[in-house]
């Protein structure tokens, strides 16, 4: 069996996360474009060279990642191409004729990885499920491993692309390697400037979840200390909850939870102490035990103030070291020093071609920067040490080292900005709790106690939602966390009395509804229907406030700009539907297809052992929806449960012996089709 799943409409809880990413991306792109144009003007004014205009005009249009969203023409075309690929492989490749293929496109609601996990979970519920089946999942989503661990007694291997950080990229101005746009001086050689990196082969990581489970069980080392029988499965579920608490795509993370600070290790230690002391678990049968979660968070909150103060001390030390690096840079490369030592007075500057910009040398020579790393690690450097460092550095190629230290200086400055730009809330001071709620939420000090409880209860409800989402599927399509910021661990009291029930009758957004909810107006014209696009730009639009051209961002104590919070409004679902109801009738036929929900499709070749039975059932029932228990038996080992039917209105279903038309002109049509396709759900 091969199951291919595209991302469909996500639950409402993730919508603001998607919206934030796209708004920040557009904001950064606009600012970066202005920066590039300014730097280009400066380079030309200083006599530098840039790539020829005719080369720039010949460049292919950059790929816009916003098109990878349900409801766009791109996703519709991608779905058609994948359907063609399945028909092509099953008709022309013998190996594919012995398997069954299930395909879920972007018009079926749900995130791709959750579609597959829910399919496996449904098969596990069958009494005669074959426990020897081994599932192999491939995907790039970070939570795929966590999702796999939620399936008990299931053999799963995860395949992921190996992550390789800091891969060299060409400068976006001169197309050369070894620097970024900030330090670009234009083309430094008359040779061909569009040199390419050697192709890097993709490597894959295989994760055996059975082995991972065993490692996690052993890592706790608690069994022998307990006075009761230890339940490994419940511990694993508790561990998953702790990972969710530290970070997820649905809630802003707690200010005291930073994964690079080994917070998971700290939380596990608190968990172990509580298990030994109180004999409890945090979860049960895929549901959070809020009483025990409250106890756990209360114990964690005792560490919260210490975490904030330790973090501040570490940041201060880093800033001192970074300032030291800047001081060394300034002393070595002062203008007065270089104008006499490097070039005779009045002489023109010689052409400079750094080693890392030469042909066949696209990357830095890291060996020459070791002294800088040493200086960065040093806590207390006296003047003699600094002088010694300067002598060592100036013995190297001065221009080359200047460039490298310039890059270091720029990185240093960015880190300092990241660490100090959010000083409005000083979490290391005694009134940190009051500061946070008055400045982040705008709450009157006298209302903080009541308001913080409200925020914590919404957050706890979010933790409940996420945990159920991972273990049981979507608990509610319309729930979401309504704040930009998280509470503190110390705010989680009385959450055990939560009585909020999720709306099980809620429905997902349709593809175009989600698209207009998350895409900024600056890049929506290409993807939205014309009349819908006008709602994002016209001043008299009833939802124009959802599409701010300028908005504030907040690092909120984080280190990197990618972690910023975009302070943009949340989308009111009822208000959006009220406005859009007058625009549905204006959709073209093609837009209506992009906006409708679809089911998965199941494919089977005429040579497959089950084909004749399937054909007979459809002939008998005239294509009506038919329920099969233990629907298939693939190679007598893999059983599939679900519902199949033939939809006569589905134009993607091609009858036997008919021709499958290619979606792209460069591909050929598939004649005499031998693959039957039916609608499928479970």
UniProtKB/TrEMBL annotation:
GO molecular function, one term: RNA binding
Entry GO CC: nucleus
Positions of the Xrn1 helical domain: 229-680
Residue ranges annotated for the Xrn1 N-terminal domain, each copy included: 1-162
Signal peptide extent: none
The entry's keywords: Exonuclease, Hydrolase, mRNA processing, Nuclease, Nucleus
PANTHER family, sorted: 5'-3' EXORIBONUCLEASE 2 (PTHR12341:SF41), 5'->3' EXORIBONUCLEASE (PTHR12341)
Assigned protein family: Belongs to the 5'-3' exonuclease family. XRN2/RAT1 subfamily.
Annotated protein name in UniProt: Uncharacterized protein
Organism lineage string: Eukaryota, Metazoa, Spiralia, Gnathifera, Rotifera
């Amino acid at each position: 069996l091969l199951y291919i799943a595209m991302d469909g409409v996500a639950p409402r809880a993730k919508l603001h996360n998607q919206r934030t990413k796209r708004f920040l991306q557009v904001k950064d792109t606009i600012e970066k474009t202005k920066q590039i144009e300014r730097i280009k003007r400066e380079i030309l004014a200083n006599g530098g060279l840039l790539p020829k205009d005719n080369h720039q005009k010949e460049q292919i249009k950059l790929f816009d990642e916003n098109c990878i969203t349900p409801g766009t023409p791109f996703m519709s075309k991608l779905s058609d191409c994948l359907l063609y690929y399945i028909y092509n492989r099953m008709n022309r490749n013998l190996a594919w004729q012995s398997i069954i293929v299930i395909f879920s496109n972007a018009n079926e609601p749900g995130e791709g990885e959750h579609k597959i996990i829910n399919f496996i979970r449904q098969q596990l519920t069958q009494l005669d499920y074959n426990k020897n089946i081994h599932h192999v999942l491939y995907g790039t989503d970070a939570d795929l491993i966590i999702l796999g661990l939620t399936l008990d007694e299931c053999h799963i291997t995860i395949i992921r692309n190996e992550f390789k950080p800091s891969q060299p990229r060409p400068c976006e101005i001169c197309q050369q390697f070894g620097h970024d746009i900030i330090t670009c001086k234009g083309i430094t050689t008359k040779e061909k400037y569009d040199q390419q990196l050697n192709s890097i082969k993709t490597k894959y990581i295989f994760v055996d979840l059975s082995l991972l489970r065993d490692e996690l069980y052993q890592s706790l080392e608690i069994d022998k200390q307990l006075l009761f029988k230890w339940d490994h499965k419940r511990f694993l579920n508790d561990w998953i909850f702790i990972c969710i608490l530290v970070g997820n795509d649905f809630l802003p993370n707690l200010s005291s939870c930073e994964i690079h600070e080994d917070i998971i290790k700290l939380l596990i230690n608190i968990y172990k102490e509580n298990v030994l002391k109180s004999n409890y678990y945090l979860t049960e049968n895929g549901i959070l035990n809020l009483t025990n979660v409250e106890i756990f968070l209360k114990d964690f909150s005792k560490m919260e103030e210490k975490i904030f103060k330790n973090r501040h001390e570490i940041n201060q030390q880093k800033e001192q070291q970074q300032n030291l690096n800047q001081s060394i840079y300034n002393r070595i490369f002062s203008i007065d020093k270089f104008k006499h030592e490097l070039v005779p007075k009045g002489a023109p500057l010689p052409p400079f071609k750094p080693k890392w910009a030469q042909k066949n040398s696209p990357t830095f020579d890291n060996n020459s920067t070791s002294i800088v790393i040493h200086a960065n690690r040093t806590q207390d450097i006296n003047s003699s040490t600094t002088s010694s460092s300067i002598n060592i550095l100036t013995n190297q190629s001065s221009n080359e080292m200047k460039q490298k230290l310039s890059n270091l200086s720029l990185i240093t400055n960015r880190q300092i900005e990241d660490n100090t730009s959010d000083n409005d809330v000083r979490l290391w001071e005694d009134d940190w709790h009051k500061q946070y709620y008055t400045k982040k939420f705008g709450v009157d000090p006298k209302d903080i106690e009541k308001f913080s409880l409200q925020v914590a209860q919404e957050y706890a409800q979010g933790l409940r939602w996420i945990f159920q989402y991972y273990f049981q599927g979507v608990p509610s399509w319309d729930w979401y966390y309504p704040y930009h910021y998280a509470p503190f661990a110390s705010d989680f009291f009385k959450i055990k009395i939560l009585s909020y029930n999720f709306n099980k009758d809620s429905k997902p957004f349709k593809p175009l509804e989600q698209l207009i909810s998350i895409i900024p107006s600056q890049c929506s014209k290409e993807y939205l229907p014309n009349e819908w696009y006008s709602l994002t730009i016209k001043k008299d639009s009833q939802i124009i406030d959802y599409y701010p051209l300028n908005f504030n961002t907040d690092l909120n104590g984080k280190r990197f700009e990618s972690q910023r919070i975009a302070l943009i409004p949340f989308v009111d679902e009822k208000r959006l539907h009220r406005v859009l109801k007058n625009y549905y009738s204006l959709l073209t036929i093609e837009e209506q297809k992009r906006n409708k929900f679809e089911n998965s499709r199941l494919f089977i070749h005429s040579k497959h052992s089950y084909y004749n039975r399937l054909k007979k059932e459809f002939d008998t029932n005239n294509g009506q929806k038919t329920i099969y228990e233990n629907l298939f038996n693939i190679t007598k080992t893999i059983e599939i449960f679900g519902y199949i039917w033939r939809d006569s209105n589905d134009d993607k279903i091609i009858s036997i012996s008919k021709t499958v038309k290619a979606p792209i002109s460069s591909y050929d049509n598939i004649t005499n089709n031998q693959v039957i396709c039916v609608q499928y759900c479970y």
